Amino acid sequence: MEPIVISTWQHGLEANEEAYRNLNENANSLDSVERGLTVTENNPEVHSVGYGGLPDNEGRVTLDAALMDWKARIGSVIGIEHIKNPIRLARVILEDTEHTILSGDGAFTFAIRNGFEPELLLTEYSLKKYLEWKSQGSGKAEERHTDRDTFNDYHDTIGMIAMDKFGNITSGCTTSGLAWKLHGRVGDSPIIGAGLYNDAAVGAAASTGRGEECIRACGSFYIVEMMRQGLSPTEACRRACERVYKLNLLSSKNRDHKYQVGFIAMNISGEVGAFSIRSGFQYAVMKNNINTLFDSEFLIDEKYIIEDL
Ligand code: ASP
Q: Is-contact 303 264, C-beta < 8 A?
């Protein structure tokens, strides 16, 4: 098969390069996704993933990451601190334990026992941003990951799906979650079926955006099931966005509705697609040695105000 990799957002371009280089050298999709996502985790300029990710409301950088491969093997890490590459830890859980998910202190202890070094993940920039937020006196977790200022840019989890030369697909996600989130809050990224899902007979999906909405919809699982019924990856992602949208309306009477959710998907023929709730979601696809950033199609426009309905 021709290798192919798709990932979320502009920083997906850099991660794709690494994943694709591995795929081209005959690495399997699990190795390739892990290595690709590590690039984003190590980049302090990405303020929503790994080192340099914005902290929670207590100023603590807590990371979530997960992998699921074509053998339905799962490794997921929730709310880990001081470990720069939670995606590597997810890989260890996937391969070397009988478990699927480790969280918090237990995940940290497991990491140290497996040779990971504890590190400070707060950078000068992320500390400055945290202190600014703190000085505003707001107690509310913000739907914000970066210092850019439209809500389209606030969601920057990297989700990645790759197919190797053997036709095997792996999906993965890694994130620092919503900036200033309540300490202990878990988003969609480490939740199997929400942040990512994989089925060797069908394909895989991954998500980014406000995790609460994706969890409600079991977004990635839903996309895989839609593809099983014969929908294209893009159409399946569109259906998942409609589901997210409907369940948000049903559930969110007194909430802020200005959220973004974006999905990417790949089927076992190597076709890819994406869709988002609002405009602004971008995804990167690399195949035939060409890495391209695309604007996703979306459901509702930026001027849409739910209260006007
Ligand atoms: N999905 C992530 C979360 O809810 C956030 C994001 O993609 O920006 O934790």
A: no
